[in-house]
Amino acid sequence: MVREIEAKYRVKDVEALLVVLKSHGLRIGDPVHQDDQAYAQPGWDYGMPKTGVVFARLRTTDDGRHLFTVKKPVSGEMDCIEHETVVTDREQMHDAIVEMGFRPTVRIVKTRRSGSLGSVSVCVDEVEHAGAFVEVEMTVGDDRDGMAAQAELDKVVRAWGVDVERTTDTYDSLVRAATATA
Question: Which domain holds residue 57?
Fold first, then answer.
């Protein structure tokens, strides 16, 4: 079982964050545009707990690559069993996901710059309708305590000394909240 454990933070000054990351030896990649369609399992809706529920995502990047991802939160929204694969036809994959009973929820469009510090992946995201964020994540293949892993990730971010605000919401929830009030 592979799990992705992450911690996410709102960023007030992206350029200041990038300077700090560079000073810590992080080589950040070029911006990549990502267009994600999120899908919910039958019977789930916003406001309900996500733990134990299967969610799907269909992502297209600006190089024309399509990724199909399934996530199942374990101890919280930022601790998920994850499976991901490349697909060749976004439209056919969308139709297959809907045929399996999943329903499209929100579209998340973002620009992502990423890199890594040892075993920790770092993504600087500018998300349409939601703002700028930094995500730090690790992949674990054991039954490691998700909350303890998130505390480790939080120490990494706090050591940078950058003005950030932690959030436990996923991008789909953040975009949905932002667009529902617009």
Answer: 3-180
Instruction: Kindly tell me the sign of the dihedral angle through the C-alpha atoms of 102, 104, 109, 110.
Output: negative
Can you give the CATH number for the domain in which 41 is found? 2.40.320.10
pLDDT digits (tens, 9 = 90+) for 93-125: 999 999 999 999 999 999 999 999 889 999 999
Cα 174 to Cα 92: distance, rounded to the nearest angstrom: 27
Report helix, strand or coil for 98. Answer: helix
pTM confidence score: 0.93
N- to C-terminal Cα separation, the chain: 39
What are the pLDDT digits (tens) for 26-44?
A: 999 999 999 999 999 999 9
Residue 63 tokens read as 């190089």
The one-letter amino acid code at 9 reads Y
